[in-house]
Every structure is written in structure tokens, then in C-alpha cells.
Amino acid sequence: MAMLKPVKTDMKKPYPIVLSYLFSLGILLVLAVSAGCNLPRAGQALTPTGDFASTAAAQTVSALTTQFASMITTTPPPAAETSLPTQPSTTLTTAESVKPCERAEFVSDVSIPDGTELTPGQTFIKTWRLKNTGSCTWTTSYRVVFESGNVLGAPPSFNLPVSVPPDALVDISVNMKAPDQPREYESFWKLQNPQGVIFGLGSNGDKSFWVKIKVVAPTQVP
After folding, report:
1. How far apart are CA 129 and CA 112, in angstroms?
2. Furthest-apart CA pair in the chain: how many Å?
3. Neighbouring C-beta atoms of residue 98, cutoff 10 Å
4. Higher-pLDDT residue of 16, 217
5. Helices 14-37 & 49-71, crossing angle to 10 degrees?
6. What is the pTM for the complete model shown?
7. Which residues make beta-bridge pairs with 187?
8. CB under 8 Å to 215, separation ≥6 — which residues?
9. Are 199 and 104 in contact (CB under 8 A)?
10. Distance (Å, rounded) from C-alpha 121 to C-alpha 107?
């Protein structure tokens, strides 16, 4: 029986190794079949060639098969990476949800819009419509106070006509008189709580509401 030369293996290239071992198995099977067919004829001395060769071939095949099976390894697939869900960020908005006690918002000029022309000494009633945007009710102890400009003949301060709860509207009216000198005039006003604290419009409560008029000379009739 011809000796098989050892086949060089390269662990980094498993498929050429498999083909080499399959080729060796095929050769051994051919030799085993040839040895089995070479049986002794009548009168011929028995030799252990046939059975021994078959047994040796079978043992070799078994050994190669075991070695081949040990070379085939299965690599488990990599574990899938799982990512934890991100938690939504929460932003505290407590500052936005808390209303200040005393704030106002200008809604409209009910009478005497800005730029109204009046004659010298003409009397008029100015009416503002305001909204209570704070969290405290304006009682009749709250006052409307003159801040700057020209008072236009009005009292420098006066009480609110009614109580105004939060988010309610109020019309504030005051009697005024146009000055004698023809030109433009402005009068700025704010609110005052019973403790004497003055507040006004806007998010900071520091803006005024006003009246703006234009005094013009009467037209001379010929």
C-alpha cells in the first residue's frame, strides 16, 4: 500500500484543506476496493493482503474522518447589540405657569384714538379698555394714576369704577380738557394697588397706557 504524504494545512484557508482530505479519502476507497477484489484463487496460498488492506483502509478513513470533523468549527453569530431607549428630557416650566399678582394689558381705545384733533379748551371723555392679566382681583380700592406728560385737565388719580377679577376687562374713563395752545399732547397713566405699588402693562408691568391728541386752531370763517 502506497504511503500517503501528509498534506500541509493552512488554518486560515479551511476550504482547500477540506478538498485535500476528500481527495485522500477517494484514493483510500479505491485502494480498498482493489484489495477486496484481489481474493486468492484455488491452490493459492492465503496472504493477509486483502483483509489487512481493507481493515487498514477503513481505519485510515475513520481516522481522517474524525480529524476532518474536528477541524470544522462553527462560530456563533455575534450577539445583536441592543441600545437602551433614551429617556425624554423634561423641562420645568414653573416660572411660566405662575402669574404675577398685578399685571395689565391694553385692549383698545374706546374713545379718542391717538391723533384725534381737538380745538383749544375742548372737553372730552377718554376711555381705555384694559384686561387684568394678573392673578389678583383689582378692587375699587385700586386707582388710576397720572405718570407723565400733560394731565390734560384730569384729576391726577381716581379709583377704578368696578372690581376686576383676573382675565376680565374693564373700561376706564376720565374727563379731560384740551389745552389752549395748538400742538400735540401726550398723557401717560398707570395703575396703583391699595398698598401704593404702581404697576402697568407688559410682562414686567412697567409700561404705561396713554392718550395722544392734537390741538388745532379753529378754522376762521370769513
Report:
1. 12
2. 170
3. 8
4. 217
5. 160
6. 0.57
7. 149, 211
8. 117, 118, 119, 120, 178, 179, 180, 181, 182, 183, 184, 185
9. yes
10. 28
Contact 222, 185 (CB under 8 A): no
Give per-residue pLDDT as tens, 188-208: 999 999 999 999 999 999 999
DSSP H helices in the chain: 14-37, 49-71, 94-97
Dist. CA 142–CA 188, nearest whole Å = 17
Q: What's the pLDDT at 92?
A: 46
Query: Residue 184 in contact with residue 147, Cβ under 8 Å?
Result: no
Span 132-141, mean pLDDT? 98
Q: How far is CA 30 from the centre of its chain?
A: 75
Q: Which single residue is written with the C-alpha cell 391717538?
A: 114
Q: Give the cell for residue 95.
A: 416660572
CA distance 180 to 168: 37
